[in-house]
Amino acid sequence: MKRRRAFKIAMRQNVITGRVQKHPRGFGFFIPDDRELPDLYLSKTQTLNIMDGDRLAVVQVSSRGGRVRAKIVEVIERRTPFIVGTFESVGSRTFVRQLGHDDTVSLRDRIHISPKTRGEAKDGNIVVAEITQYPQQGHGAEGIIVRVIGQKHDPAIDTEIIIAKYQLPRDFSSQATEQAMEASLQPIEKEIEQRVDLRGIPTVTIDGEFARDFDDAVSVKKQTDDQGRKFLRLWVSIADVSFYVSPNTPLDEEALERGNSVYFPDTVLPMLPEILSNDICSLRPREDRLAMTCEIDFDPAGNVQRCDIYDSVIHSDARLTYTQVQQFLDREVTDSELGLPPEVGEMLPRLHRLHLLLRAQRISRGSLDFDLPEPEVIVDARGKTEDIVKAVRYPAHMIIEECMIAANEAVARHLTKAKSPCLYRIHDAPDPGNLDGILCLAATLDFHYDLNLPIHDLLQQLLQQSRNTPYESAFNYSLLRSMKLAVYDIENIGHFGLASTHYCHFTSPIRRYPDLMIHRLLKQLKNRPSPSDSKKRGMEQERLSIMARHCSERERVADNAEREVVALKKAAFMKDKVGYTFAGTITGVNSVGLVVQLDPLFVEGVVPLWTLPRDNWRPDNSYVLLRGQRTGKRWCLGQKVQVKVTRVDLDVREIDFQIESVL
């Protein structure tokens, strides 16, 4: 009765729902479902009976000093019952310490394991534990060991640990596998007769060296209209996964559950069984393949003049890599040396010119381009990190990017014009508060800007001023962090980052479920419910809305898992480099210390405040400078320093540096 009454009171006080992000040291933060609301602090006392990931109902209360914090009303839902961590003994008691917690975490926050339920687990093993009793007043959580993954800090199990932590599906059910096999054996001769035949058009796929699934192919030709005006016609042909994967089947349901493929340095968890993703759906060279094609005509300035979308059959002439295309464009190799037909050799420079037109169009309307180096983690067969290098990015990469953006926009406009349901890829504008922070940062860096400009032009102006300065990387990261996340939604608000009024994901149905949904919506246009059938259309919109939220959530899970594996591989790479010195750049300033990125390795670590010369160190309001109140000494973003690696903690992925000198 008391609980019900308390909940009713909370309802009148605007109860908020969300999840807990618990810190290894015991306190935590309440992350509201409504991302417009700020995160709220939870003290150690409040989180005694709460676990990381639990869903809560809270109300906001003001404490002394005016600080707003969360007051817990009730636990709505306990997090997953499975925990990944280190099995360890403390005296006669055995526990599992959760992944990401160091050995200082209290016994209260560990999972107690009965000796009878430890199975084959030994000290130092990484295990999966199932919680049988959640924490209660006076008692911590209890559980049983359900799986032993391997020995702690063995690089061979790094990815398996993260797969288990995020509960990522690895194996497909026998039903899904059987359906995939049956689908791959379907005869397609009759289907080909009903499609637009593009096999006579020079067509290529362009991907990375190690790509195994090819879901997009491109072609471009010079054309002349009836009035003698020249234009370029682009064909973007995408693997027709929807032909092989029917809705509401076990195969489709498992693809939806995954939401997307997940890419790690040493393995891939595909959204679809490999018989589809790497074989029959993949647009492999010199083989007939079913596709959906977006055909777009561009005038000499790069403006869209016409668009058509249809089922097709294609025959890719070559599987090219970005490196090969760049070498060809730079005249380092010839088409014959690459084994290309002459017509493909003639087409590649045309593709390059079209991408320059499309890019200029996109930038002119306010699209934001973040020039951020991407690290590439190189691992050996055992999963050990051999090197961390800057991922090479050629203009050839941009050719495909611009073609895919153009196709995605064209498809979104097509569905909108047809008044069809659509799963848009939306990206909202940054909050004014975050924008104020960026402007404060820009002012501190002595950037000049015009507040009367439209927001896209203003941000482009700032990005341009940061180019080729010591602050470029730090400013780009700060601006990127101020942006909201792109998500899927049935309501179109446009894509802020691309400055696009209509955008969706159409070009990767092998690895993203939303793209498969878009393909199905395109095919349903002919048989969609009439406008008078409002009930059926409403149900379809509701179903799409649910799927949009699910796919957005699965994307976040995949991103987090991929980042965590990379962080683990980076920390492991630095473990034997304690005592070594490296050149680095200060990329962050906060109340804990200085964030430094090692220039040659793209590894970030922290210079703790206590390692700096004795002073009262405080960051400025824009977190650009760390200033000593007594000496006036300053450390600032973009500053080049020489640092020594002093500590690497693999359990919490922390790397500490000490400044040796200023460069």
Describe the overall structure.
This protein has 663 residues and is an alpha+beta fold. It folds into five domains: 2-77, Beta Barrel (OB fold (Dihydrolipoamide Acetyltransferase, E2P)); 84-152, Beta Barrel (OB fold (Dihydrolipoamide Acetyltransferase, E2P)); 174-181 and 190-427 and 491-566, no CATH class; 432-483, no CATH class; 578-662, Beta Barrel (OB fold (Dihydrolipoamide Acetyltransferase, E2P)), CATH 2.40.50. It has 15 helices and 31 strands. Strands 3-2-1-4-5 form a five-stranded antiparallel beta sheet, covered by helices on one side. A hairpin with a 5-residue loop joins strand 27 and strand 28 (625-628). The longest helix is centred in the C-terminal third of the chain and has 41 residues, at 534-574.
Number of domains: 5
Count of DSSP strands: 31
Strand order of the largest sheet: 3-2-1-4-5
Described by the principal axes of the CA atoms, the overall outline is: globular
Mean pLDDT comes to 88
Distance between the termini: 67 Å
Task: Calculate Rg over CA atoms.
Answer: 27 Å
Number of helical runs?
Answer: 15
As a percent range, the share of helical residues equals 25-40%
Contiguous runs where pLDDT drops below 50 for at least 5 residues: 1-12
Largest sheet: 5 strands, antiparallel
> β content, as a range?
25-35%
Assembly form of the protein: single chain
Query: Which secondary-structure class do the elements indicate?
Result: alpha+beta
